[in-house]
Amino acid sequence: MLQTAEDIRLLNEKISYASTFVSRINDELGKVIVGQQTMVERLLIGLLSNGHILLEGVPGLAKTLAIKSLSQTVQGQYSRIQFTPDLLPADVVGTMIYNQAKNEFYVRKGPIFANFILADEINRAPAKVQSALLEAMQERQVTIGDTSYKLQEPFLVLATQNPIEQEGTYPLPEAQVDRFMLKVIVDYPSKSEEQLIIRQNTIGHASPAINPVASTTEIITARDLVRQVYLDEKVENYILDIVFATRFPEKYNLSKLKALIGFGGSPRASINLSLAAKAHAFLNKRGYVIPEDVRGICKDVLRHRIGLTYEAEAENVNVEEVITEILKAVSVP
Fold it and tell me: Any bridge partners for residue 108, and if so which?
């Protein structure tokens, strides 16, 4: 829908007013998280876009701490599920329990019934557990017995996985990986940041308390505003070109990538890239998307949606390099 300059000005004012909770959340997270600005920003984008997030990184990079701290800043329910090879679907969604005194079954709801779900080391659980989680992620509901139960909003699955340890892990099904809006690679802190981390954890006693500074109502209102952020047709076509270049690279003068890409991004990639770009604009207090919003979030949206061939592995080409080549080739509006 075409918007006038006045419409965008009014939207900018609304966003400026409605986004005040973002700085409050950042301040609270800053008490315990040193650096990792990209990870924190991506968590906020997921929160604003109603999209699940997969964090990947070696142990000790504050992935779990960041997710738990984010949930503490919002006045909602938080649940942590430690995924293990012996985990059962009932341990996640709940089960029917027989009451002998009343001679009837009743439902005992599992930890999935919360606003923020930390799925810790998600790739350690087998396929049956993943399928139970998949229904919750996609349909925002859980089926126990013959009854389906709606999950409360906001509902966000924030998962972590360790990329280096393969023993006792299961590769996530492609269908489930595609349900994650963003896959964020968490890297090591800088030397100065790590020095501050040492001081925070070796001097003094208890960690600072995280206070709830945003309500679920504020989050839901902000989500409505994110969807109203103006996406010009030129930027929309830019998003389409990027996604289509992952499917048909030869049409974008990227014939060298054709043999390296097994499959490209699905329409869900286009939807999520648009929503993430809108959320990125919202975080920057803008009522319109610019190409830099798209480029800034592109790798996190696409890195888990592009399948590489054996030839790419043989040539030591990774998905990051493929996305970089695509961004170089596709003309910016």
Answer: 95
Q: Are 215 and 290 in contact (CB under 8 A)?
A: no
CB atoms closer than 10 angstroms to residue 214 = 20
Angstrom distance (rounded) from CA 268 to CA 274: 10
Number of neighbours of residue 200 by Cβ within 10 angstroms: 14
Among residues 271, 179, 288, the alpha carbon closest in space to that of 226 is found at 288
Per-residue model confidence as pLDDT tens digits over 126-152 = 888 888 888 888 888 888 878 888 988
Helix/strand/coil for 159? strand
Range(s) within the chain of domains with CATH label 1.10.8.80:
230-329
d(CA 45, CA 282): 9
Long-range interactions of 312-315: CB distance < 8 A, separation 24+:
312/259, 312/260, 312/261, 315/260
- State whether CATH 3.40.50.300 applies to domain 21-219: yes
Instruction: Say which residue the tokens 């954890």 belong to.
Output: 201
Based on DSSP, count helices (H) and strands (E) in the chain, helices before strands: 15, 11
Q: What is the DSSP letter of 113?
A: S
Integer Cα distance of 69 and 82 in angstroms: 17
| pLDDT tens per residue across span 176-229 | 788 899 998 888 888 887 888 788 777 766 677 788 888 888 888 889 999 989
Give CATH 3.40.50.300 domain extents, the chain: 21-219
- In this prediction the pTM is 0.87
Q: Which two tokens stand for residue 89?
A: 């679907």
Domain 230-329 adopts which CATH fold?
Answer: Helicase, Ruva Protein; domain 3 (1.10.8)
Helix (H, G, I), strand (E, B) or coil at 34: coil
Which of these, 161, 179, 94, 178, lies nearest to 125 by C-alpha position? 161
**126 contacts 170 by C-beta, under 8 angstroms:** yes
Classify burial at 328, counting beta carbons within 10 Å of its beta carbon; exposed 0-12, middle 13-18, buried 19 or more.
exposed
